[in-house]
Structure of Transglutaminase:
Amino acid sequence: YRPFDKAKAIWSYFIESGEFTYDVQTDDATGSDALTHFLLVGKRGFCAQFASAMAVMVRSEGIPARVAVGFTPGTKQGSYRSITTRDAHAWVEVYLGKEFGWVVFDPTPLAGGRGITPEYLQQQTSSSSSNVDPTTEPSPEPSAAPTSAPLPEDEQPDQPDTVQDQQVGLATAPGWARWSTVVVVLLAAAATGLGVMVARRTSQLRKEITRRELDEADQRLSAVGRWLPLAAAGGWLVSLGLLGWIVSWWLALLLMLVAGVASAPLVWRTVSRNRRLHELTVNRAQAPHAAWRELLDECADRGYPVGRAETVRETARKLADRFNLDTEGRAHLRVVVSTLERSWYGPQPEVDAEFVAAFEGLREAIHRNAPLALKDRIMPGSVVKR
């Protein structure tokens, strides 16, 4: 007889003979051999006794066997199943070679629909008697070998769950996990939308700065805009992590790692740009340096790195031709270049409001006449080629 037939015969002795009873309250063995007393005299016990007894009997036939510990399917409560510590259970796993691996045999005669008979054992017992006849033709080995505790499907309570059925999705995740994911996604979306609106508003403020002075609220708005892209990126990163964690912790780490590396150049460039534009808006003493650094990065993003030996006027002339600036853009560029030269080489301690408005107009002209491709937005040259 093959190993499966031997293991099945031992399992049938516990399940089909009708002589054994599941009971968590058992008397002490009257003899010196507790296993013999359980098998031949008492025939009453709990899951650990049934599992250990079958494991010993299977091993006595030279077949590897082990006792596994887990839970029964519990009880059905509406659209879900309730599993508590009262459903703790033990069963046997028999090794049937590399082809099938460890196969589940549960020798405990559970009542109330809590017991699970795998399909490969149902096919064997549907036409057999309560006692196995060792002279009958050996039964075929099982077509599938479950390697974990038998868990039922709602539609087929007598079938073990597959690996796919055991995986957890968003709909079956704990309530706090679902709500946390939704809240973080909403916060990330809000930060993203707010960042776009603040960027547009501060851009308009810089263009209007020659007509009115910035008040305290405008300055605070510009300060907040520096960090909104970082907050939005962090929110989306945490959202991906929560979604991945619902499936498994390693998927969460993988998603966060990949997304973090992929988005880092864009986030870094956006935060740097907003920081410089904030200095340009509220700190006139640092405005020339901030504007020049931002102009160099705009060129690098478009594949035109400026050499260190080039003067401001040389850079401006090449920039105007390279980016095909229109008349308005060239006018803004002349104001920017003249102001930079005066601030660097003259006694003027800080720049006036016209420089701020001209630089904002120059940025818009560059974006209008030399727009960035999508890949250059995601992987800006000023960051990845630095």
Remarks:
- Confidence is low (pLDDT under 50) at residues 124-171.
- The longest strand covers residues 88-95.
- The radius of gyration is 37 Å.
- Residues 210 and 353 are 5 Å apart (CA to CA).
